[in-house]
Amino acid sequence: MAVQASIKGRGGDHSAFQNDHREAFQADVLAGLSGKQKTLPCKYLYDEAGSKLFEAICELEDYYLTRTEADIFHSNLDSMAALLGPSAVLVEPGAGNCEKAEPLLTAMDTPHAFYPLDISPEILLNAQQRIQARLPDLTVTPVVGDFTCAQPWGEIPPSSHRKVIFFPGSTIGNFSPDKASTLLAQFRSYLSTGDGLLIGVDLVKDSVVLERAYADSDHVTERFNKNLLSRINSELDGNFDTEAFAHRAFYHPHRQRVEMHLVSLCDQKVQVAGQTFDFEEGETIHTENSHKYTRAGLEALLRESGFNPTQFWTDNKQHYAIYYAETL
Ligand code: AVI
To answer: Which residues contact 161 (CB under 8 A, 6 or more apart)?
Structure first.
C-alpha cells in the first residue's frame, strides 16, 4: 500500500488552531499567576524546546520511568500482543512520535488500524510515514487535537473491530486523581464492551528515588521547568528573569505525588501580557504534579472509571507497572 499522507482533525486549519491555542495559553497563564498559590498548567511545558528537553529527561539515568517502562514492554511484548488479539484497532492519545506504539503494532496479529492523537501535526505525519513504511498493510490515520477534548475522538470512525486505547508513559500521573478518573471514563465512553486499555503507570516508591528523578543531577528537569518562563516571555510578552527562580521538586507522601515548583529567589515584579504580578522571596509557582499509584490505588481508579484490570506487568524492583484492563 502506498504511504498515505492524510491527517484528520485540526491539522488542516493550523493557523486558526494556533490562534485558539495562544488565547487559551494567555488566559490560563494570567489566571494561574493571579491565584494565592500561583500555578501554571503543566501541558504548557511542551513547546518545541520543552518537548526536546523532555526527550532528554527520558534518556537520563536518574529518570528511571522511561527506561523501566521500555524494559517491561520489551520483555512482555508477545503476551501483550496476544491479549490485544487479531485485527484490533489501536488508538494512542498523546502519541507524539509513536515510538512506543511501533513495536507493539509490529508484535500484534494483523492490526486493523492505528489512530495516533496529538496536537502536533508535523510529529504525527513523520511517525505515520515511518510506521507505514514498516507495516505497509496497516492503515495509520493521525488525528490532530487535544485528547482531553471530545474533538479528536469524534474523528475516529466507528468500527466493528476490537478497539484498544494505548496510554503509556505514566501520563495519567499528570492528572489529579479526580481528573484521571474523568479522563479514563471519557476513554471508556469511546469504547464498547470487550474493548481494552493498555496503560503505563509509575508506582509509589522510596522518596529519594522519586525526587532524584525530578531534580536530576544533570539539571535537565530544571531547564525543562524554567523553559515555561522563557516560553511566557517570548509568546506572551513576559519579562521573567529565569535566573531569579529556582527549580524545586519534592515528593508529597500523603498526596502521593511529586510536585514541581519554581521558587522566587527575591521579592520581584514580573510583567506578562501587560499585567504585573508580585512575587515575594520564597513564593512559588506550582508547575506540575506527577501522581504515583499503588497497585490497589490504580486498580480502584480503573474500576471506578469503567474498566476491569485483568493483567499487569512490572519490573523486578516494582517501580513501574503496565496494566491491561477490559471495559466493564
Ligand atoms: C510526561 N510525564 C509523565 C512526566 C512525569 O514524569 O510526570 C513529565 C515530567 N516532568 C518532569 N519530568 C518528567
So the answer is: 87, 88, 89, 112, 113
Give DSSP secondary structure letters for 69-97: HHHHHHHHHHHHHHHH-TTPEEEEET-TT
Domains of the chain: 1-228+293-328 (3.40.50.150)
Q: Does residue 65's CB lie within 6 angstroms of at least one atom of ligand 1?
A: yes
DSSP state of 44: G
> Ligand 1 pocket test: which of 46, 179, 288 has the largest number of ligand atoms within 8 Å of its C-beta?
288
Task: Give the position of cell 504585573.
Answer: 276
pLDDT of residue 14: 61
Smallest CA-to-CA distance from 238 within 285, 277, 271 is with 271
Ligand 1 centre distance from Cα of residue 251 (Å): 13
What DSSP character marks residue 292?
-
Instruction: Using the mean position of ligand 1's atoms as its centre, give its distance from the Cα of residue 1 in Å.
Output: 37
Cα–Cα distance, 256 to 250 (Å, whole number): 11
Which pairing describes strands 268-272 and 38-39: parallel, antiparallel, or unpaired?
unpaired
Three cell numbers, residue 92: 494512542
Question: Does the C-beta of 177 come closer than 6 Å to ligand 1?
Answer: no
The grid cell for 246 is: 529556582
* Atom number in ligand 1 closest to CA 224: 11
Q: What is the largest CA-CA distance in the chain?
A: 62
The pLDDT averaged over each successive group of 10 residues in the chain (328 residues) is 57 66 95 98 95 97 98 98 98 96 98 96 95 96 95 95 98 98 98 97 98 98 98 98 98 98 98 98 98 98 98 98 97
Ligand 1 centroid to residue 264 C-alpha, Å: 22
pTM of the full predicted structure? 0.95
State the CB neighbour count (10 A cutoff) for residue 213: 23
Ligand 1 pocket check: which of 44, 53, 57, 252 to mutate, most ligand atoms within 8 Å of Cβ? 57
